[in-house]
Design goal:
Layout lengths: L3 H5 L7 H15 L1 H4 L3 H17 L2 H8 L16 H9 L21 E7 L1 H6 L1 E12 L15 E2 L8 E8 L2 E8 L8 E2 L12 E12 L8 E4 L15 E7 L6 E3 L2 E9 H6 L1 E7 L2 E7 L8 E4 L15 E8 L6 H13 L15 H10 L3
């Protein structure tokens, strides 16, 4: 029986990595593109390919170590299993075995994900941004051919450009033929005699570029904007995947966002809350007047319609909720304290009754309703 370990020059307890490394070294030395039309080198190259076909496959190697030769043309002992028989007669082959013709070198690239930080105003009104992304692009030197300029891929002499090789084996069903990927060209049907030095034969390189993107109104943290065919270019200049921009909204110093509504707190002096007043509030839309009725209570809400965040895809906007924070004066001077005592006397509040509010009224009721969304 042929000693495949000796052909590859590795010990019988060699690891899969050692076997693969030995095969690649010998394949480079003996390949017809390197060794020329030397018959001896060509025959040796075929032996090396057969040896790797067996030792590079865990199941075939196990059968070979038990005394069988999976690549032999005669006998059941060649490691020819039921999977090979099933694939041959019922077409159940998978992967490259089921491939009709060579495998294309050019394949679709992966999708890419980039984070995009935006301000609240951009989420409210939308914006146009220039974004820098670092992705794989078509190699500018070889234009995706993987070859050094002036050269081109060559048809694999082992498989004749088919990307696969056939072998004949005997089984209890008789003589059958199976197909497997060509080890010399990895199933592509061609070899790259002189790879491009810019991309090392990949047909693509990494590059930083700037792209334009329209950020729609209404986006929020976690929203993903899809840019078709702006992701990673595939091997051999294959079609690019998609680019996803994942939005992260920065925290605003004044406004808090809840859905498409905005919330803000407006400090108001006790006297203004009691007497009523008109205040000017700086909003994302510019100055807006807030009308406080006489007797405005702490944490009372004033709603400014249509001054919130834009609705994503549907148009319109949320509201701006202004929460009044009544400020009680501290550190009164004598005149101010006397005025408040006179006011308390006029209102009969020198000694107010210490009665707890019911569950349906008072500050805690308002807090409960607020937490419940009512």
């Amino acid at each position: 029986m042929t000693d495949y370990y000796e052909i590859l020059g590795v010990p019988r307890d060699a690891t899969p990595e050692q076997i693969k490394k030995a095969y690649r070294r010998l394949a480079r030395e003996l390949h017809p593109d390197v060794a020329g039309n030397d018959p001896a080198s060509e025959e040796r190259f075929k032996d090396v390919s057969r040896a790797y076909d067996v030792l590079g496959n865990p199941d075939k190697r196990r059968a070979y170590d038990l005394g069988g030769d999976p690549s032999a043309a005669g006998g059941m002992g060649g490691g020819f299993g039921f999977q090979d028989i099933f694939e041959t007669f019922f077409g159940a082959a998978t992967g490259a075995t089921a491939q009709r013709g060579p495998i294309p070198r050019a394949r679709r690239g992966q999708d890419a994900l980039v984070r995009l930080d935006i301000d609240l105003s951009e989420a409210t009104f939308g914006s146009h941004r220039e974004v820098q992304v670092d992705t794989a692009v078509v190699c500018p030197t070889c234009q995706g051919s993987c070859c050094r300029p002036g050269t081109s891929p060559r048809t694999c002499e082992v498989c004749g450009g088919r990307g696969s090789v056939q072998r004949v084996a005997r089984s209890f069903l008789g003589q059958v033929m199976t197909t497997q990927p060509c080890a010399a060209c990895q199933g592509f049907g061609t070899v790259i005699p002189e790879p491009c030095t810019e991309c090392a034969g990949e047909g693509r390189v990494r590059s930083r570029r700037t792209i334009s993107v329209d950020v729609p109104a209404g986006v929020d943290t976690g929203t993903r904007i899809k840019l078709t065919s702006q992701g990673e270019v595939g091997p051999a200049g294959g079609p690019a995947g998609d680019l996803y921009l994942e939005v992260r909204e920065r925290r605003h110093d004044v406004f808090v966002r809840r859905g498409d509504d905005l919330h803000a707190t407006l400090p108001v002096p006790m006297t203004a809350a009691a007497l009523g007043t008109v205040l000017t509030l700086d909003t994302l839309d510019g100055p807006q007047e807030v009308d406080l009725r006489p007797g405005t209570q702490p944490d009372q809400e004033v709603v400014l319609k249509g001054l919130g965040v834009g609705h994503l895809h549907t148009g319109g906007r949320g509201d701006l909720h202004v929460h009044v924070d009544v400020q009680v004066p501290v550190a009164l001077d004598d005149e101010q304290a006397e005025l408040l005592r006179r006011l308390a006397a006029l209102r009969g509040e020198e000694r107010p009754d210490a009665r707890l509010a019911t569950a349906s009224t008072g500050m805690f009721a308002r807090l409960r309703d607020k937490l419940a969304g009512r």
